[in-house]
Amino acid sequence: MDMQLEKPLPLPTPVTRPFWDGLAEGRIRMQRCLDCDGWVFYPRSHCSHCLSDRLEWRDVSGTATLYTFTVTRQPTAPQFADEVPQRIAVVELAEGIRLTSTLVGVADADIHIGMRLQPVFDRVSDSVTMLRFRPA
Ligand SMILES: [Zn+2]
Asked: What are the strands, taking DSSP E only, across the chain?
């Protein structure tokens, strides 16, 4: 008997939907402030630098480096038991934006801070594509 637990998935909101729709199209879209030019992530209604509400969505390349990481050998939740060890990473995009993701396609011994990464668009359901990273 296979008791596969259903994994929790992101639920797009009006504010975050452009980000998720972009991933489904193989694009990484980030908010940029029209008043201070700051990048904003996670998606929100106001700039995290100057509180302006004049934000626009821009495509970024996804070129990134590994800022920090951990390898989890116990599931972070029961639904992720089939994914351990998980390579959880904070990734820094070329624009300076840092985001939490997971590394794929790399052996633990080859993971090192500062390594160059490229995005992987992982379609996990009909409506959700997750952004992961692998060595460039
Ligand atoms: Zn701003």
From this structure: 28-33, 39-40, 55-60, 64-72, 86-93, 98-102, 116-123, 129-135
Q: Which residues neighbour ligand 1 (ion) by CB within 5 Å?
A: 33, 35-36, 38, 47, 49-50, 52
The 10s digit of each residue's pLDDT in 68-84 is 999 999 988 899 899 89
CA 69–ligand 1 middle distance (angstroms)? 29
Amino acid at 75: P
- pTM for this one? 0.91
Residue 67: asked if its preceding bond is cis (omega within 30°), the reply is: no
